[in-house]
Amino acid sequence: MWKRIRLAIALIGLFACTSFVGCAKREEKVMGIKIGVSVYDTHDAYLSALLSEFNSYITEKAKETGIAMSVEVQNSNGSQATQNNSVEDMIDNGCDVLCVNLVDRTDPTVIIDMAQQKNIPVIFFNRELVEGDIERWSRLYYVGANAEESGTLQGEVAINAIENNDIDKNGDGAIQYVMIEGEAGHQDSKIRTETSVAVIKDAGIKVEKVASAIANWDRAQALTKMSGIIDEYGDEVELVLSNNDDMALGAIDAYEAAGISDEKRPIVIGIDGIDEGLEAVRNGKMYGTVYNDKEGQAKAMAELIYSELVTKDFSAIEFKTGRYVRLPYAKVLKSDTIGTKYSR
Ligand code: GAL
Questions:
Q1: How far apart are the CA of 244 and the centre of ligand 1, in A?
Q2: Prediction pTM value
Q3: d(CA 215, CA 227)
Q4: 272 CA closest ligand 1 atom index
Q5: Domain 32-145+294-313 and domain 148-292 have a common topology
Q6: Minimal-distance CA residue to ligand 1 atom 12
Q7: Homologous superfamily assigned to 32-145+294-313
Q8: Could you report the per-residue pLDDT of 225-247, keeping only the tens digit for each?
Q9: DSSP 8-class letter at 179
Q10: DSSP letter (8 states) at residue 128
Q11: What is the dihedral of CA 221, 225, 227, 233, to 10 degrees?
Q12: Residue 126 CA to ligand 1 centre (angstroms)
């Protein structure tokens, strides 16, 4: 996957620019844009899909504007110290703008200080920095989504499953559920976990948590954790809520590995709408998911870069509050037309 992305990156920087014709008044003559992207972990399924979209939008923007654009992606392997060093390297290598997916979203200080010193704008994405930090300098931005919305929509997908299917297998009037959580301290993890269950309870449905497990957004880790839960509780679980699709797929893998038949398996619901998640919704292995608009986020990042470095005109950027751009989520159910909207 990453080899393919790198190849795409190498193909982007092809368009030399000599002059601007008919551009907005305040546009500067920009000959080329070097974009440095730092990711907390390039093996993350959703982020790898998001970055592939980002590369496509940058390629498009380069063609549209005639400005040469190149993208360099660095993996932080889950270490904030590694991320700080690679951001420093990208600054030294002459990057004009940084896109940073923080490892530790509460610790952007070193990066902000380095960027501000060299006057290089930073677009933080996906892992939300706290408000006090974004206010430290006017060339800092955030592109992501509203975590609470994803939790609410996941809760609504669960209510749909409970109301339209006979999922209370033991008939005790309560839904026994397992929560598979992303990462401790991550805004999406914490808020999705709290909100989805609160929404189900608010609908007057009785739920009982059988177990919860942290699987760091990762399918293999979720397989291991869910296998342990199956060993302990067999086919007692009626609903699996997962903070993302990759871990939901890992939970399904665990049921496959345990040889539990489809009728005895719980309803599984994810978030993200990555290709494999959508496929699982289509083939009925997963009941539903919540689409995390990677195309919208990637496009917003590309447009922000262009506004920041070229036009200085931000009127087309939809800031929600301050310098935060948040793309909406959407429910994906097999029965919805929306399910087909996101099908490839
Ligand atoms: C979330 C996404 C997860 C994971 C995480 C990484 O928004 O739903 O799948 O990619 O970001 O920060």
A1: 7
A2: 0.91
A3: 12
A4: 8
A5: yes
A6: 127
A7: Response regulator (3.40.50.2300)
A8: 999 999 999 999 999 999 999 99
A9: E
A10: P
A11: -160
A12: 7
